[in-house]
Amino acid sequence: MKLMRIGEPGHETPALFDNKGKIRDLSGHVADIAGPAISPEGLARIAALDPESLAELQPTRIGACVAGTGKFICIGLNYSDHAAETGATVPPEPIIFMKATSAIVGPNDDVVIPRGSEKTDWEVELGVVIGKTAKYVSEADAMDYVAGYCLTNDVSERAFQSERSGQWTKGKSCDTFGPIGPWLVTKDEIADPQNLGMWLTVNGEKMQNGSTKTMVYGVRYLVSYLSQFMSLHPGDIISTGTPPGVGLGMKPQRFLKPGEVVESRHRWPRHPAADLRRRHLNDRGLMPAGSHESLTRLGRWNFKAYMSFSRQQNDLRFRLPLGQFSRYSP
Length: 330
Description:
alpha+beta; 9-stranded mixed sheet; 6-stranded antiparallel sheet
């Protein structure tokens, strides 16, 4: 399933993006895409619903795909090729830092370049959304605690992060530096989170082009590892690191300017169970046979979400316009 939240900030409606490319209202069944709704039992109840029985929502603003996030945990230098481009060595254990939850925004909301910034950078990442409380879990059981995945952009101000004293957090936590979404993709859709293509463009120029295959520490390991030090709760997000191609690693370095457009994308092989569900839906006449592709235009920024459903791949992308300096009031 693909779960999302539609509406103005603080007033989002929980929704399902169905296999016909329509947005369906879940508010009669769950309070939000958060807490109990993303537990194994909650997701099973949503999956049992007939999408045709749910009211269709008109496209408006897309909010962050999960609510009630208590912790936004990021993993640094978790791609061997990214570590190499920045001149860093691969760490013997995961580098953990926090991004303030106040940075979280929807996927096509403005990213505001903070006052005094000259080195705002991009990082496409795979986000892991926790579905039930995890504490001291084994690597073998780690996936039992995952609700699903989302696309994240760990927007970073490199001077704040590395050129001033202290920890990375202040370069990662500026308001709007945590766009997530457009949807939470439940884990049944993805057979192997370590086999996801991912890339990012700036103004249409491809900057990052990598795969989760080059992660140093994979999803199972990270969930287990983090749970040894802190409890993970439903709605917590683990942003698992970025592949090469960030502005910091370029020669000469390149950083974002007001008005530029950042587009991030993941591609993954579909889970065999999802194909079985697709055939079941076809039998019920709920979606056309063969591959299905839809183009949804949402919001005033002409947000585009291209969905391609087939037995080979599932593909999503979103565009993220950068806000102007003038949006920052003194």
